[in-house]
From TrEMBL:
Gene Ontology molecular function, alphabetical: DNA-binding transcription factor activity; transcription cis-regulatory region binding
Keywords, alphabetical: DNA-binding
Name of this protein: TetR family transcriptional regulator
KW Magnesium (keyword) present: no
Ranges for domain HTH tetR-type: 13-73
Key word Nucleotide-binding present: no
Transmembrane parts of this sequence: none
DNA-binding region(s) in UniProt: 36-55
SUPFAM superfamilies: Homeodomain-like
Length: 208
């Protein structure tokens, strides 16, 4: 591979990344209706033609953007796993619950929500893609939460408790769209840590 090709590929990857990050920011700030390819391209500092070179359709751009940031979110969770590993159970769970809640109160969740709303309104092709994407992201987030919490899902109620934690985090994310009540969120996090302590610290008995 010659020296000219490598920088060109690097520039292409950098342009693609700027478009994906701009798409997320536009969705979070302007919603689906206000997030056209032209608006995203302008925010990314590229031409509309350059944007369409990377993403043939608007649906391609925005589903790729949500998937891209979801992958970054998973990478952050893997980093969190290493960082919390030395901590004792209760302290580790507090950090983990706080970070999981943060996943649903940032720009990614707001952007994903706009995509869900658009997909729910007579947009069959986008709906299929979003349903598939969310199923994959949901499974991976659940799997990572189980690993982070060191939860034994063979024990009664553990799987449902972990899923309830993620559903709670999503609900807090929805509430934050209107009012960001940090004090209430902290109280809810504390309560969920206590719930997890009660469920995950129960010894598993043989022959249950």
């Amino acid at each position: 591979m010659d020296a000219v090709t490598v920088p060109k590929q690097d520039r292409s990857r950098a342009t693609r990344r700027r478009l994906l990050e701009a798409a997320i920011a536009c969705l979070a700030e302007h919603g689906w209706a206000g997030s056209t390819v032209s608006v995203v391209a302008a925010r990314a500092g590229v031409s509309r033609g350059a944007a369409q070179h990377h993403f043939r359709t608007r649906d391609d751009l925005f589903t790729a953007a949500v998937e891209h940031v979801a992958e970054e979110r998973q990478a952050a969770l893997r980093t969190l796993m290493a960082a919390t590993s030395p901590l004792p159970g209760p302290a580790r769970r507090h950090v983990i619950v706080t970070e999981l809640v943060e996943l649903y109160t940032g720009p990614l969740f707001r952007a994903a929500l706009q995509l869900w709303v658009a997909a729910s309104h007579d947009h069959a092709q986008l709906r299929r893609r979003v349903v598939d994407l969310e199923a994959r992201v949901g499974r991976e987030t659940h799997r990572m939460a189980v690993e982070l919490l060191r939860a034994d899902e063979t024990a009664p109620g553990v799987r449902e408790t972990v899923q309830g934690l993620l559903d709670m985090a999503r609900g807090l994310g929805l509430a934050t769209l209107l009012t960001d009540d940090g004090a209430r969120r902290r109280r809810v996090v504390e309560q969920w840590v206590r719930i997890l302590d009660g469920v995950l610290d129960v010894p598993v008995r043989d022959g249950r």
